[in-house]
Amino acid sequence: MSIDSFIAGMPKAELHVHLEGTLEPAMLLQLAAKNGVELGFETEDDVWAAQDYPDPALPHFLDYHLKCVRVLQEPADFAAATKAFIETCAANNVRHVEIMFGPMAHTVRGVEFGPMFAAMERARSDACADTGVSALWIICIDREHTAEEAEAMLDAAEPYRHQITGLGLASYEEGNPPSKFEDAYRRAKDSGYRLTAHCDCDQRDSVEHIRQCLDVLGVERIDHGLHVLDDSGLSERVIADRIALTMCTTWRPSDPEPRRLRAVKTMLDADMLVSLNTDDPSEFASRHMTHMVAAVQRVGGYSDADMVAFARNAFVSSWADRGDVDGWLADLDAYADSASSSQS
Ligand code: ADE
Ligand code: ZN
Fold this sequence. Notes:
single chain; about 350 residues; alpha/beta; TIM Barrel; 8 strands; about 15% strand; globular; binds adenine; binds zinc ion
């Protein structure tokens, strides 16, 4: 079996993907035209070209990302994005997805939280029923905002608390340490949210930020988390405490190969709960799960067993119901067995 077929057929889960990063160029342009948003590009080729900014550092990506999120204005826009993405998950054999969304980037522009989220949730529920994909929500603080604004976001989400599984922390990391949101995280934990937070790659104070996520915020997962590898004590801790690391082997058109390719294998071999995720699949050349994960196997030269182990880690560290997880793991094991026996 080819790598592409093997990865395409594998039951997968994704734990780190931003709804706002799933707007395919056609939808981006259509929403921009409908809502009168000036993006500075006209065609789908222009969109792909704009993603090839010369410096891959996080602020450059986020500047592009935040320019694009402005096309989402009406509740129906958020619903359309949700439906399209869950259908794409189905096409990628992603059985379970945990979708992050960042309301602050919308509410600052005058979008009302309630109608926005109600439309997203209706679209999620309908698309899950239609496709059989399981999906849940992670609401994210954009960390360049104040602690008070984060609390206001939690206030706005309160009526929908039962429909939102987790709290995350995203966006511009430098100068915005996890400890800034200690109160919001304490409150979220008390009201039953599961907790994760971004510790992005190549940030100033990365190791300290990971430490704060564990000690101050009390997270169960870290989004990215590459820099646990810089500190042996932290590495031992994430292994012992089964802290999940949702790595993203994304790349831009001009990157020679998947980024963090060797690091994810080092983490896997160290028995870390590391998974492979697309982050913003319509804003990177790495695209959606099957395409990205197949490239990781091909370029990294990794075994089928390694790829099954990444997928297993995603299911194991998901926040889905245990019974569902056990069912997906059984499907994954059966798939791995049948793929290996068809090879022998
Ligand atoms: N928001 C959307 N994508 C993000 C990423 N990769 N890192 C931080 N914040 C984000
Ligand atoms: Zn992310």
